[in-house]
TrEMBL record:
CDD domains: 17beta-HSD-like_SDR_c. It holds the Pfam family adh_short. GO terms for molecular function: oxidoreductase activity. Belongs to the short-chain dehydrogenases/reductases (SDR) family. Keywords: Oxidoreductase. This is Oxidoreductase. NCBIfam families: PRK06179.1. The keyword Oxidoreductase applies. It comes from the Bacteria.
Length: 272
């Protein structure tokens, strides 16, 4: 076993976007970093990052990857659950099978990783689990119901988990990005049972989403929030990433429900 005296961060979905920037930022913050990808042989090498194959939707893959990290480094101090998939389309247009596939990565993938890593963190008496949520974890988004549901699930799971593990020296924390300049839209599942009744509105929302992502925060903005969650002496449960995420969080907490509902419909150009 090759042990290390430096803290070790394990980052899922680190081949591009937020995961890539988070891995690099954690290296700069003094961590040894293991990044994962479903096919690490196709990943462009990153200075200071060791890549492993990992599919968070497969139990055996999760078990093997975590065991390899422990065998090679002897520790896991920070787990960044970043791997995720998108889903576009009206709720009625999305089959249960498609929704299950989204949850298998975005929700159950996080649970698989936590269940494998947490015993090691408890044994060492410290650790941080950082789950990448979204502003859609606490707000609705028409024509992204399944994705929003998966992030709402992560919010409830993480907050509950945090209460359970604090006495063991472990924290479970949330990072909440807003629209971020990644390949999210291109890599999101489209509705597998499209319906004419929703086509016009769906196309409008899809266009608005593409524009928001194009004009959104750089992934490095989210990476900065991840490093803060990993290193703050007194960590917060939730870290909004970037000014837009901060504004949305404030509005959700302070604006009356009826006014907030009206604003959601206005932004998405839905009839009042």
């Amino acid at each position: 076993m090759m042990t290390t005296t430096r803290p070790l961060a394990l980052v899922t979905g680190a081949s591009s976007g937020i995961g890539k920037e988070a891995a690099l930022a954690l290296v700069a913050a003094g961590f040894d970093v293991v990044g994962t990808s479903r096919d690490s042989s196709r990943v462009t090498p990153l200075d200071g990052v060791t890549f492993l194959d990992l599919d968070v939707a497969r139990d055996a893959s999760v078990t093997a990857a975590v065991q390899e990290v422990i065998e090679r480094f002897g520790r896991i101090d920070v787990l960044v659950n970043n791997a995720g998939v998108g889903s576009l389309g009206a709720a009625e247009e999305t089959s249960v099978a498609q929704a299950q596939a989204v949850f298998d990565t975005n929700v159950f993938g996080v649970m698989r990783m936590v269940n494998e890593v947490l015993p090691h963190m408890r044994a060492q008496g410290r650790g941080r689990i950082i789950n990448i949520s979204s502003v859609l974890g606490f707000t609705p988004q028409p024509y992204m119901a399944v994705y929003a549901a998966s992030k709402h699930a992560i919010e409830g799971y993480s907050e509950s988990l945090d209460h359970e593990v604090r006495e063991h020296g472990v924290r479970a924390l949330l990072v909440q990005p807003a629209y971020t300049r990644t390949g999210f839209e291109a890599n999101s599942a489209k509705p597998d049972t499209p319906l004419h009744a929703y086509a016009k509105r769906r196309q409008t929302v899809d266009r608005l989403m593409a524009e928001a992502i194009r004009d959104g925060d750089a992934p490095a903005v989210v990476a900065k929030a991840i490093v803060a969650a990993a290193t703050d002496a007194k960590p917060k449960l939730r870290y909004t990433a970037g000014p837009m995420a901060g504004r949305v969080s404030t509005l959700r907490r302070l604006v009356p429900a009826r006014a907030f509902d009206k604003q959601i419909r206005k932004i998405n150009r839905l009839a009042a």
